[in-house]
């Protein structure tokens, strides 16, 4: 009689559909390899169907999240932002209207929209570049870090760590550094002062 081979513990771990990951492992698994490319889309408003118009990363992200985030709060924000961001030119021109809307949503800290907001901010940085960096230094960096500060106060009451939020914020800051590093290198002194105020205190 042939004995049925026993499944090793290692094999069981390999086929397990879900494996708990420590915070250190989750941070190490963040992928920041972003493909630099500008996408082009056909538009029905063009006279020649073969013509192409450049759209912004921000607009693409806005539409992408409209298929994933069906919360009432995002639907409202999407309806406010979409008329301002149909093209890259519109995003640049309307940045003074777009940024306050994003900031207000960040300050409200609705958990249903935080991941979406952080991605929209990253994509807006890709579009605006140096124009975005001004607002990043003025208030956006502080607003993003405040997500963690306020979350920490809640965690102390509930005795648990919001690793998902920590990962989302860390990923956002990492992507922002990736897309703005050339600008940041020229401003290291003030950038260090800004970072040390919040991250090293």
UniProtKB/TrEMBL annotation:
Per the UniProt entry, the signal peptide is none
Q: Name one GO cellular component term.
A: small-subunit processome
Output the superkingdom of the source species. Answer: Eukaryota
InterPro entries, per database record: ARM-type_fold, SSU_processome_comp_20
Q: What is this protein called?
A: Uncharacterized protein
Which lineage?
Answer: Eukaryota, Metazoa, Spiralia, Gnathifera, Rotifera
């Amino acid at each position: 009689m042939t004995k049925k081979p026993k499944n090793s513990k290692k094999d069981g771990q390999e086929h397990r559909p879900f494996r708990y990951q420590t915070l250190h492992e989750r941070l190490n698994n963040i992928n920041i390899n972003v493909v630099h490319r500008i996408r082009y889309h056909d538009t029905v408003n063009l006279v020649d169907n073969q013509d192409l118009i450049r759209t912004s990363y921000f607009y693409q992200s806005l539409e992408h999240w409209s298929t994933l985030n069906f919360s009432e709060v995002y639907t409202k924000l999407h309806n406010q932002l979409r008329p301002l961001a149909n093209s890259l030119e519109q995003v640049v021109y309307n940045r003074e209207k777009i940024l306050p809307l994003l900031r207000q949503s960040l300050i409200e800290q609705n958990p249903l929209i935080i991941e979406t907001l952080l991605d929209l901010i990253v994509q807006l940085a890709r579009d605006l570049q140096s124009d975005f960096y001004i607002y990043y230094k003025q208030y956006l960096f502080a607003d993003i870090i405040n997500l963690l500060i306020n979350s920490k106060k809640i965690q102390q009451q509930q005795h648990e760590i919001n690793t998902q939020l920590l990962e989302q914020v860390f990923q956002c800051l990492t992507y922002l550094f990736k897309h703005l590093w050339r600008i940041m290198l020229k401003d290291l002194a003030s950038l260090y002062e800004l970072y040390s105020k919040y991250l090293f205190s």
